[in-house]
Amino acid sequence: MKSKIILILKKFLYYNFNLFYKREGQVYKELGHFDDCKEECFESSKIVIGIVKERWFLHRFYINACKELKISYKLIDLFSSDWLESIKESNLDFLVVRPSVQYTPWKDMFDNRIRLIENMNLVKIFPNTNSLWIWESKLRTTEWLKVNQIPHPKTEIFYDFNELQSFSNNCSFPKVYKSSIGSGSSGVKLIYNKNQMRKISNRVFNQGIRTYRKHKLDKEHGFVILQDYLEDVKEWRIIRIGDYYFGFEKLKSGEFHSGSQNFGYGMPPEQCLNLVKEVTDKYDFKYVDIDVFITKEGECLINEIQPYFGQKDDRELLNIDGESGRLTFDENTKAWVFEKGEFCKNNLCNLRLIEMIKGNNN
């Protein structure tokens, strides 16, 4: 009850006061010392990695991983006006990127400049740039899944207000409204009837809508994403890092699984693992997590694809019979193999770098 009251108060403050830069100031106060970590050279390192600065210092996990693994690195600031010159002059083996997604203009900048860097063949980029492009955009993810005929919950996207009204007059309810940007179910709402649909449609097309964590000016408008509501689904998050896999169940709290912070552990369902392996192999998405719905009929549907996700306190992401570890797929026996151990340090960035170096050499 206390946590719900705190959340209600937080939403009220964020919606009615522009606290975005106050949050940023707090981040700089706590983590600003990472601005001093411009580069570091280790004699034993045979490569130099470029680490792109994330506005709120989420790149620090890559810096910490480089220090622990003794890998030389240089910091690249895509926010800087001389971003292109700094990349050309840095002589990097490859570049690791975690885009800043807190504010839409920042994410747009990352999408544009990363794509230009790749098109110019300046340096190899990890993770896969298509996975970065669809990240934090349910709009892009939905249409990417549809175009590539990957099983996913039936979803409609409307850019025309009149078409949306016609649809709402004839569809069944409930429907799931999803903002394109928003983590932890912050932009997700169940719509139970035409009146609710009309209210949210008018708001989106006439005023714009934003999730409470966003900048006060950072509103979505001009389109509506509606997903079919699936009852009694289970949701598993399957993570792939290079050749290794992790997974846990996202337990439902209230109306949704996302953002519940309730997790179930054990061997992930084999059909989820197989689907994730098939998709990530085909599209070279080797550093992603994929949220998979399992319907009551046993069908697996991909709900979201993300190259990065929240991981509190470096918690281990796979636990089977009380043992943490990771999974690999044995191509000879066609079986999933469990390896005990702890592999999720620095938000998985130690393992990411080890696997990226392998991928860069292949």
From TrEMBL:
Gene3D superfamilies associated with the record: ATP-grasp fold, B domain (3.30.470.20)
Instruction: Give the record's keywords alphabetically.
Output: ATP-binding, Nucleotide-binding
The UniProt entry's GO CC annotations, sorted and at most eight, read:
cytoplasm
Q: Does the keyword Transmembrane apply?
A: no
Any GO BP annotation: SOS response
Residue span(s) of domain ATP-grasp = 142-337
Q: Name one GO molecular function term.
A: ATP binding
Concerning PANTHER family, the annotation shows: BETA-CITRYLGLUTAMATE SYNTHASE B-RELATED, RIBOSOMAL PROTEIN S6 MODIFICATION PROTEIN
Q: What is this protein called?
A: ATP-grasp domain-containing protein
